[in-house]
Amino acid sequence: MGAHEIFSRSIEVAIVNTHLTYLLVDASCLLVPFVCSFHPAIRFHREWKFVALPALFTATFFLIWDAIFTAHGVWGFNPNYVLGIYVYNLPLEEVLFFFCIPYACVFTYFCMRQLVPSLLNRNFSVASVLIGLALIVAAVVNYERAYTFSALGLCGLLILVVWISMRELLALFFVSYLLVMPFFLLSNGILTGTFLESPVVWFDNTESWNQAADYSC
User: Fold this and answer.
1) SS3 letters for 143-166?
2) Is 18 strand, coil or helix?
3) Which domain does 200 fall in, by range?
4) Other C-beta atoms within 10 Å of 1: how many?
5) How far apart are alpha carbons 102 and 112 in whole angstroms?
6) Helix, strand or coil for residue 17?
7) Rounded distance, CA 217 to CA 210, Å?
8) How far apart, in whole angstroms, are the C-alpha atoms of residue 167 and residue 164?
9) pLDDT at residue 83 in the model
10) Which end of the chain is more exposed for a tag (fewer CB within 10 A), N or C?
11) Number of neighbours of residue 169 by Cβ within 10 angstroms
12) Residues ≥6 apart with Cβ < 8 Å to 126
């Protein structure tokens, strides 16, 4: 093994496979949106007072949801990749996750609204209703799997509620969602074991939609 490979491997072990791993994922998701919030052309920091309360409400809802499923063993956290500081049964990094990711998502939506205002009021009604109904049907099909049922069902209901009350925002929402998806897949991929010796967050596959595929392997 050459010197470059040894150095690269040392960096990977020192940074990735440590108790800082989950914290580094959180920081990576937050860093660029936070720094760019102060850019003169964006100035998202001026909106913080409007974002703070909804962000706290959203985080509280999902942290309770998260803690319930953690308590029932639907998922859990590898102690090798967290600092060991817990809030109830959730590691500190998991709590921070529900602030970092929403911040990054709302920042992306804000930027898109500033840069592409023409997306507002675009008619996305048919697609939104179809997506919402499809998610609810998928939730009903998976009624025996509490996690899949609740995640798909709540998402479908939310889309339909927004379609009823604020449908002019939906096109902008879906475009923003597509923009953050590659970064979500990367961060979530790391948390579920990509590039690592074992997952940061493990899941009970019997609660997942793809359990049949898992059993067939």
Assistant:
1) CCCHHHHHHHHHHHHHHHHHHHHH
2) coil
3) 3-216
4) 7
5) 15
6) coil
7) 11
8) 6
9) 92
10) C
11) 19
12) none
Q: Which residues of 197-212 are buried (b: 16+ CB within 10 A; e: fewer)?
A: eebbbeeeeebbbeee
Dist. CA 205–CA 188, nearest whole Å:
16
| 169/171 Cα distance (integer angstroms) | 6
Q: Which two tokens stand for residue 20?
A: 């800082």
Q: What tokens appear for 148 in the block? A: 């899949």
Alpha-carbon distance 61 to 64, whole Å? Answer: 5
Helix (H, G, I), strand (E, B) or coil at 75: strand
Q: What counts of helices (H) and strands (E) characterise the chain?
A: 8, 4
Q: Residue 108 and residue 174: Cα distance in Å, rounded?
A: 11
**What is the mean pLDDT of each successive set of 10 residues along the chain, which is 217 residues long?**
50 61 93 93 91 91 94 92 93 95 92 79 80 94 88 92 86 87 90 85 77 39
Rounded-to-integer distance, Cα 41 and Cα 8, Å: 37
Beta bridge partners of 203: 75
| Structural domains counted in the chain | 1
**Residues with Cβ < 8 Å from 164, sequence gap 6 or more?**
none
- What the block records as the tokens of 120 is 């507002």
Separation between Cα atoms, residue 184 and residue 31, nearest integer Å = 14
d(CA 122, CA 120): 5
Neighbours of 186 (CB within 10 A): 15
Nearest to 175 by CA among 135, 118, 213: 118
Please state the pTM of the whole predicted model.
Answer: 0.81
